[in-house]
What we know:
By secondary structure, the chain is α+β, with helices and mostly antiparallel strands. It has helices spanning 49-52, 107-116, 123-136, 234-247, and strands at residues 12-18, 27-36, 43-48, 62-64, 79-84, 97-102, 118-119, 139-144, 150-153, 158-161, 164-173, 179-183, 199-205, 211-223, 227-232. The longest helix is centred in the middle third of the chain and has 14 residues, at 123-136. The radius of gyration is 18 Å and the shape is globular. The N and C termini lie far apart (43 Å). The mean pLDDT is 86.
Amino acid sequence: MNTAHLIPEACVAAIILRSDEHPDLPFFGGTGFFVHFPPYDRVYFVTARHCVCSQSGTLKGKVEVKLNNDPNCNLAVPFSEKLTVLESDDSPDYEDIVVFTVGPLEEAERLKLLGRSLRLLEQNIADFILATLVSARGKVRTVGYPGASKAIDYENNHATVQPRGIVGTVTAQSDDEKWYTVEELNWKDGEISGFSGSPILEFVPGADGKLAVRPIGVLLTGAKNEVFKFVKINLVTNLISGWILKSGISAAARIDT
């Protein structure tokens, strides 16, 4: 079945960074994607930590993500907090994930962003899907912004980006069942740099009987155009749920309260 038309390209965004030393020379920092965690209606932005942070954990620059995909949009998504698992990659348990909480927005823009975001799965369902994919050597999909499909026009202060997709086969998992290897990629356009931070997507039956797209992982590393690895989405879910508990947010809380 051809599922290309079902891939939610609106959920992903190209990351632009601006350093304090050279704010007039922005540069790309990989891909990220929006999620929400029912029953809460806050929106979060997920990406690979190495895309936006140095090894010490500090940001490489100001993180800019366009509020919408309009080429003429000059507004950025406001971020309130940066959530990470560890502040150093010296630990063998280093998890290369960062989550930004989205800050206050006008109600109309908030609802648009919520509509673009992917719904996080219950953790047991995500584990079941991943186990099934490993045992069956199933296919997974991702969408993001590789280096081959984005450019910055410094003279006119304008970025041009185009989302691209990859389909591959899950061939292995780590002993701790956190990392997964994907091979047999259909990508033919050079190295896959720029896809770091992209969501790994799977189709599940929706309440209306139609297929719904859910994130099951985050793409973190790749080798040329042959293989990539991702971590399971439950690491993101744990990070967000821990922040919710720490913040004391109620299910009815609005994003701007």
